[in-house]
Amino acid sequence: MKKMIVADLDGTLLNSLSKVTNESKEYLTKLKEKGFIIVIATGRIFASVMDATEKAEFANYIISDTGAYIYNVIKKEVIFKSNISKDIAKKILNQYNDDYLFINICEKNIIYKYSNLKEKHYHSNVTMDKDYILNNCKEITKISVSLKTNDIALKVYNKLVRKLKDVNITLMQDSFSDRKWIDIMPKDCSKFNGIQRLANYLNISNDDIICFGDGLNDKEMLEKCGFGVALKNALLEVKKVAKDITSFDHNHNGVINYLKDELNVK
Q1: How many domains is the chain built from?
Q2: Is residue 86 part of a domain?
Q3: Contact indicator for 13, 250 with CB cutoff of 8 Å
Q4: CATH number at residue 158
């Protein structure tokens, strides 16, 4: 019987140094060799996933960009991709004002960061030139909007939900931060939808899926997948919908230690 093991990255499989430990890589590789389907499901863009995991060789598949991009690691081929229109991106860019920190227009390999902040960020091209962004971005997988306070983030989120009906808009927060921001994905995309697409593609039952997460964009997959497990460090809202909680956090191989106890694979 096939089993799919799905893990988020930040706050879940990655530790606070944004690394997957060697112990985690080795054990997931062992499970992969024994026939388990190892899947990464993350909000990171694809290029960032490949860097953070050192090419993700321990995994079978990557669901990146919060479900907008699905990739077969072994065959090095794209299984699914979905995009946001430039018209939507333009509408969101036009909302920028003094309440905003930045707007990230994301492709699978690069982020166009629209901001008057001069901070540098890996995989990002920082600019205040809207035309440059819209002329150069090709396939927009996701848009992230960061505001100066959580109260403003909630107000902007409610405004965008009322105005934009052709995209999936969510409020996001990681377990290791109090800051909330807004993620905008193609209408048919979320981590859970990406998992379901992949499971259908592989003819795997939802009951045969176990997933791990910690942040708000993991809540749906933990609630709806066969068996959702929250990390010890997960947000309270995420723990409330999970079927179980790990004994160890993301800095102490929480995912791997849980799997070792449950699967009894040496």
Answers
A1: 2
A2: no
A3: yes
A4: 3.30.1240.10
169 part of a folded domain: yes
Q: Determine how β-strand 111-114 pairs with β-strand 100-106.
A: antiparallel
The CATH number of the domain holding residue 196 is 3.40.50.1000
Residue numbers of the domain that contains 237: 4-81+189-263
**CA 13 to each of CA 58, 170, 249, 265: distance values in angstroms, whole numbers, following the listed order:** 12, 22, 9, 19
In order along its 266 residues, the chain shows pLDDT tens digits of: 469 999 999 999 999 999 999 999 999 999 999 999 999 999 999 999 999 999 999 999 999 999 999 999 999 999 999 999 999 999 999 999 999 999 999 999 999 999 987 665 556 677 889 999 999 999 999 999 999 999 999 999 999 999 999 999 999 999 999 999 999 999 999 999 999 999 999 999 999 999 999 999 999 999 999 999 999 999 999 999 999 999 999 999 999 999 999 998 87
Residue length of the chain: 266
Q: Tell me: do 206 and 129 sit in the same domain.
A: no
- Spatial neighbors of 224 by CB under 8 A, at least 6 apart, are 192, 206
Tell me, yes or no, if the pTM score tops 0.90: yes
